[in-house]
Amino acid sequence: MQKWEQNHEAVEPDLPQPLDRQQMTLHYLPLVDLQSGKWIGAEVLLVRNFLETDAETLPADRIVTQNRGEDESLEKWMLHMACIQNRQWQEAGITPFVVSVDISAPLFLKEDFVQTVERILLESRLPARYLELTITEAVASKAEHSLDIFIQLKKLGVQICLKEFGKGLSCLQQWSRIPLSRVNIDRTFVQQFVIDQQYSTVVKMIIGIAKNLQVRVTAEGVETAEQLHRLQHFSCDSAQGKVLCGPVSAEQLQKEWMRAGKQGESESESTASIEPVRQRATPVQTQEELFETLRNQQGMTFSFRKQGNQFIHTLCQGELLYRIGLTPEQVVGKPLLDILPAAQAVRKERYYERAWAGEDNVNYEGYVNGVYYLAALRPIFQEGIVQEVIASCVDITELKKAEEEKRISEAKFRLIAENMSDVIVILDRQFLITYVSPSVNQVLEVTPEAILHQSILSFLSAEEGIKVEATLREIMLDKHPKLITFTWGQQEGRRTILEAKGTPVLHDCGEDGQIIFVIRNVTAQLQAEEFLRKMEKLSVVGQLAAGVAHEIRNPVTSIKGFVQLLRRDQGKKEYFDIMLQEFQQLESILREFVFLTQQHSNHYELTNVGEMIRSITSCIQAETDSHRLELSLQVAEEQLMWCDPGQIKQVISHLLTNAIESMPEGGIILILVRPEGEDKVMIRIVDYGCGMSEERLKRIGEPFYSTKEKGTGLGLMISYKIIENHDGYIHFCSEPNKGTTVEVYFPMKHPLPLSAQGGAPTT
After folding, report:
1. Checking DSSP bridges between strand 739-747 and strand 385-395, what pairing results, if any?
2. What is the pLDDT of residues 46-60, one digit of tens each?
3. Is the distance from CB of 363 to CB of 354 less than 8 angstroms?
4. In the 8-state DSSP scheme, what is residue 710?
5. In 536-679, at which residue ranges do the beta strands (DSSP E only) sit?
6. Which residues does the chain have with pLDDT short of 70?
7. Are 685 and 655 in contact (CB under 8 A)?
8. What's this model's pTM, rounded to 2 decimal places?
9. Do residues 423 and 405 make contact, with C-beta atoms less than 8 angstroms apart?
């Protein structure tokens, strides 16, 4: 019994030692010929903690049948011991047969793998033709990297088996390039093909294609007699599974083999005798099913031979054949010139010549009656001479349509990108410019080649670069478009102001791969906007100057006239009263102008709004009584807010004064204080006076606009500024001859950070 332990003396000193102390034992799963019923080979299995257990009762969880590349030294040990055991069987007189060993992808793709196999064969003295290496379809799919390894192994004489066929995504073209000797139909298909027609079609197709490529086929995991019978009916060459024989030890396999009377027959003789028997035993019905399978495949399979100077087709089947408007009768037995137009026939004959000359990888694209297809040609050798060439074809019409649509889409994109005035820039994840549209020459006065494959940040100043980089990272993180304005440094000290919208390009998995920037030059636009702002400021200053001149001229004219009268000794006492009133009016105007130039108030206090309104109403009580007015104050609940009490009183007093003056006939003025939401307080003042028209409402707050005889319009303008400084807002609603409602909203929170106050506020 072959056991593997870390300190076992039987292991060669130059072999890799195991990575754990767990005992491992090799067992063998026989490979049975389905025509003769005889054992023709065995697959090596690794058994964990196996202690002289009968093979028929071997627990499944002790069998380690697959190598996953987790322990390279264990795989090499299995390969070495399998070769030694096979040589020992031959020396014991057993008919030579092939032993198959699983090889994982990591070990197979190692640079020294072929040398390792060659060394083991020399040390074990086993002829290479009795060793079969089993690889998965995943390794075959990497044929570009592993084809050289396959060729070197084939030169050694080692046989190669492809397992789990049908589970992966490798195509027939890749399969046809590998020098295979055997293919294993995956157990997933074997267990389902009896009850599922789709699986049955797949199994028949695999067997049919393998037969045409002269590759033997083995079914894995055969568990029922019905599966076995169906596989024989499909002309499958061999099988493995518990319905035939379970895993056995080396000693048991030797006894069973010798008991079956196989000793004395060479492997070449066995192979030579089995194949003719299998072919003669193949019923006509099975051949018909094979052709039916080829007929029902989505692609097309054809073969040809060279007769004289022409290539004559010997087989042609598949759905693709009918889609291109041909039938087998129009192809089989005929050369290309009888099937295709002369130009196409001459072109394809060049590929036929290459395959017939023995070239192993010949592919070409064909187009017949509106259908595109891809053909892969593989020569079939016998004694080193090409006997036939078999071709597998797949329909690529949809792929061609997609490529054409992509080409048209790219052409449209380039048409737009190369003719629009805005610049299109594509950045990769490192912010390198991978594409820039030709319009960059007009916008930035640089050629596309001058900035291509460079970081966009290298063309910006340090400050602008930090801003743009932060925006780019936000785009990649948030995966949403963003707009940014930045300056682009140019020669001769000129700078260009650019506006760019960056949009992330997301892959199918949601990961961002690139950023597309659409950039436009907004330098002229911003300069025009700046010019308009300056003109607007000049216009405002002009209006303000005209208003100041108008408001000050009236009191100055009055004072000037009275001074002239006083100079003529024509003065009266009431003149002094009038002059004093004009001086007070002039002082009020100047005071309001001074307030407009002041900074925000920093004196905020936590104020009781209800108490503040009550103090205001007490101050104007005498004025309301003289106008036969009644103030009705309603405070829903006591509210506290941060504010400058003096300024808020100025606003409320001004609004109440306007309400009083709008009701010369007397009446009631309503004042309501209530919370608005969780963070605001509302003060509402309602009068039933003359009201205002919609046109007047639009001009509320303009300087020097007033409905009063001696009003300057600065009162409401100042009120607006106070409310704005407190982060509040005001709303007017009025109808002529019905009254006016004013609502003022203030936030309860502190409008400025404490650091801006110079310390903590006082209450």
Report:
1. unpaired
2. 876 544 444 444 444
3. no
4. S
5. 605-608, 629-635, 640-643, 667-676
6. 1-23, 48-70, 138, 140-145, 166-176, 260-292, 417, 489-494, 507-512, 534-554, 556-602, 701-714, 750-763
7. yes
8. 0.38
9. no
